[in-house]
Amino acid sequence: MSIKQEMIEKLYLQKSEGDEELTNNRKKLVSNWFENLRDEICSSFEKIENEFSKEKEKIVFKKKKWDRNGGGGGTISIMKGQVFEKVGVNISTVYGEFSEQFRNQIPGAEKNGKFWATGISVVSHMCNPFIPAAHMNTRFLITGEGSDKKIWFGGGGDLTPIFEDKNMSHIFHNGFKESCNKYNETYYPNFKKWCDEYFYLPHRQETRGIGGIFFDYLYNNDWDKDFSFVKDVGKTFLNSYVDIINKRINRKFDELDRKNQLIKRGRYVEFNLLYDRGTIFGLKTGGNTEAVLMSLPPMVLWP
User: Fold this and answer.
1) How many distinct structural domains can be found in the chain?
2) Which residues carry out catalysis?
3) CA gap 300, 287 in Å, rounded
């Protein structure tokens, strides 16, 4: 049985807590956390950008709110500069009913399609080819009603370097390993394996990058502990990635390095448009197209 199947089986053992007030409080806690994490990430990235570029006018994230026809909405935050060629930090809280076609793919939504979801998504594409592209997403979902209700967390983070860099890989993976081990020593090896399998391009027979962690359907009969883990994932990603950026921000590069970067970005585009579940979820639930496709790089090359 795969990791995914094991976690879905565990999820189906869940009983409805029967306390709508408790559920609503948890919704607020998680959506507020994602908003606060968004602000912290944006502030950290703006600090790096402006200390490096030294422009007279401060470079900041430009924010745009959007509403979803079926219920909910979110905020797109995008920054472009001399360090971050394009970085997006999006948050959203959406709800309603899945389509007949899509609901059978989501645990708990099979009968009536009802869902509520909140999350944060970060994708950065860097000017310097020696600083890797990075992605992080965490989310909280509720599906179904009554005894059929299911709740779970999902998410993870991964790195896509252009050139091999063992020290960079160690920083990123070790950060997640330490965070995972605080909660369960099986998390890191299982979630790393899941990440390697998920971020794989079958038509290229190659991985998108060097991985990280990926998890879904996280439910352990201890909501507070699960939420704490998800918060640690976000904070660990930010700390590790800022460390990597600062260590490589002054690295010199040439036109060939840049060309290799643009080719690698092509693989990124292929994965996100062909296989990424987040892209599929956003488009099939009536999400904002600009927000869903925020992950795509500003420039790319297919030789």
Assistant:
1) 1
2) 135
3) 25
Say if 144 falls within a structural domain.
Answer: yes
Name residue 28's amino acid. K
Place of tokens 């990430």: 41
**Residue 214 resides in a domain:** yes
What is the reported pTM? 0.93
Residue 267 neighbours by CB under 8 Å, 6+ apart: 201, 204, 206, 208
Question: In the block, which residue shows the tokens 């394996």?
Answer: 193
Largest CA distance in the chain: 60
Contact 219, 14 (CB under 8 A): yes
Q: Does residue 147 lie in a domain region? A: yes
Is the C-alpha dihedral spanning 154, 292, 285, 116 positive or negative?
positive
Measured CA to CA, the distance from residue 247 to residue 236 in angstroms comes to: 17
pLDDT, tens digit only, all 303 positions of the chain: 666 667 766 665 555 455 788 889 999 999 999 999 999 999 999 999 999 998 889 999 999 999 998 899 999 999 999 999 999 999 999 999 988 878 888 888 888 889 999 999 999 999 999 999 999 999 999 998 877 789 999 999 999 999 999 999 999 999 999 999 999 999 999 999 999 999 999 999 999 999 999 999 999 989 999 999 999 999 999 999 999 999 999 999 999 999 999 999 999 999 999 999 888 888 877 778 998 899 999 999 998
Other C-beta atoms within 10 Å of 282: how many? Answer: 24
Tallying the residues shown for the chain, one arrives at 303
Q: Judge whether 60 lies within some domain.
A: yes
Domain that holds residue 27: 3-295
> What are the C-alpha distances in Å from 210 to residues 120, 295, 297?
22, 18, 18
Whichever domain contains 114, its CATH number is 3.40.1500.10
